Records
---
Amino acid sequence: MILDMLAEADRYTALHPLFARAFEFLRSTDLVALAPGMHTIQGEQLFAIVEACTGRTRAEAQLECHRRYIDIQLVLEGVDEMGWKPLAECANPATDYDDARDIRFFNDAPASWIATPPGSFCLFFPDDAHAPLVSAGMIRKVVVKIAV
């Protein structure tokens, strides 16, 4: 898991061949003008999901993980207080892995909470369980999905 500002994203481009393209999309696109929903960047290898919603409480948030995609979750408006826990320490699954949606949920409590303000992103790898969209107010964010 990585937390940083979009202005510092170049530090991470060497970690994956598609990270440079993902961060270039985030920097060069008018993200506020994008409608909620999915936006293709490079087929199924790289795409963005825009979310705009009222946040949920920590108690309502469930840890989730993905096997096929890495998430770059960039907050545009509001503060997303994302929960995090190493996947290897998650012992209480709520669901089986859903291959079609590339997701599995857990009933475990996060080990920590990361307050992510506008202009900041959390980068979650497949071994990071995370609980996003936690806020007392509205959140607008872009989640870039990068194929592993």
Note: The chain has one domain: 2-147.
---
Amino acid sequence: MRKPSDKQVDEFIGQVLRAGVLLSSAVTMIGLVLYLWHHSASTPNYHVFHSISGKLRHLRQLFPDAFHGDPVAIIQVGILLLIATPVARVAFLVGAFALERDRMYVAVSGLVLAVLLYSIIFFR
């Protein structure tokens, strides 16, 4: 496999970031429109704070709820997509540096990716 040029890598990273932000924005906007559609007649009570439900904190329940049209779950998926965008960038960089056979940058990028994934998975 031939090595990509620096310009190709930069352009692809830009496309990944752009696509991630646009997809995240679209999903979040769909959730927002659905939320406003379903709750347009309700009056919020600002005297009592209500946290998000526990089911929105776990991926096992979040995605089925989003696919069934729960507006808050759809917004949450949009936020997760936004968080995943820079992680995808770092993962792509690990692959690009591996193609260039640049071991130092593969190690540094791999360490950054490991720290990102560890913090996402284990710190809530």
Note: Helices lie at 6-38, 59-67, 71-99, 103-122.
---
Amino acid sequence: MNQEDELTRTVETSVIGAILIDEKTLPNISEKLVINDFYHEDLKEVYGVILDLSGNGKPIDFLTVLNEFQNERRNEIKKLLLFCADSTPSVSNATYYAEIVHKSAMSRKIKEQLMSILPDLTSENILEKSENLLENISSVIMPIQAKKMKTLEKSAQTLFDFYIGKTSSVENRAETGFKKIDSILQGMSGGNLIVLAARPKVGKTAFALSVAENVAKSGKKVVFFSQEMLSCELCERILSKNSGVSMTKLINKNLSQDEIKLLEKTLDILKSRELIINDSSSISVNDIRTSCKMLKNLGLIVVDYLQLMHSGSGKCENRNQEIGKISRDLKRLATDLNVPILCLSQLNRTSGENQKPSPSEIRDSGEVEQNCNKLMLMWCVSKNEGSKTIGLDVALNRRGGTGTVLLNFCGDRMKFTELETKYKENKESSGQYSDWRQKYYSKS
């Protein structure tokens, strides 16, 4: 092994060691490194195992990585992993080590490209070879940017293939599972920030949980960030909705044998749904990025709710600026991960309880409706015996229409059902809202 190869192995070893010591370093490392950046095959294999574990939402440490290897190789891998962990100078420098590995990989690939054109380079083909060389080097130096640079021809062909059924999808798209709402929304696509705003106690968490569960039913992973309720409380709602056993009985543990059997059947059904709940309080956008960056087949991120988040920095002069920054960062995150983000938000109590709200009532910031792709407003239209009629207005939609759907909400079973009844707007009470909508769309 020459001196350069020895240095490369030392740095690659330190990268693996840092991840084994602290798996929180992985999202930052994975932004710098792809698996083929590793030069040494044994370390490349370990990094591949780490990425697979993370993509499946499993913990990463010495034992979990070792467990992925077959018995006959475990002694060899055990020595390698121990050496990696012992040889890491500083976990805090893990991102810098990753940059060194990536630059070394770029250097090797550029040398390979240069050497590949030399044997058959002539005065006749020098221009063609040079152009190919520049294109190949560009793809090595800027892999992420190169992937995003697409010609009109390529983009149009991709869409056409989708239209004629040659490809199944061109985007990471999720549906709410409510037909009328989906016909208006035209899907929640990767890169979309969808805001669901309501006053307290209307049922926005219950509705968002229903949407999350419907996306999970489709076979995609969903991560639900709940800052107000614990995971067991959310699970209680899901069990009630799916089993038909009332929330009152679940909370009081007043269950008959038949109801216990219903819950057992429901649990068997729910096992196949990959709905991950994070009930950490006061999260930041960076916390969400760290938790979701490596997850494979991620179909939706839900955040409950915007006003409970913090920006992660003290640079904002006031709360309005901070909420505006958080909404911008969530939009960027949706784009970076190519995942739709459904973010719940509180509304101010500036209008009557049963009055259709306006986007201007979003609490703490006027920027939220500017930063989101779609905005849905919920309110209680009327209270009935044992249920409520809920209005859901798609107030802003940059890719689709707008309109209002009425739903029945049975709070004791956490169940929403779309109603056939059409919402009739009260022109006097909605004049300010109509003016806002007309003004907004005249600018768009």
Note: The chain has two domains: 3-113, 173-443.
---
Amino acid sequence: MAKTPKALGRGDAAPAFKLLDQNENEVTLSDFAGRKLMVFFYPKALTPG
């Protein structure tokens, strides 16, 4: 069974992640180690909701 992700609040540390960028290149949170990073999610992007 899939684990329900924890809701994050402003200022919370982001969990480790691995995603594809707009050019299909893999990007991980650790790629930005030592730098400020803002992660913004569009929860309903590309959905009818």
Note: The beta strands are 18-20, 26-28.
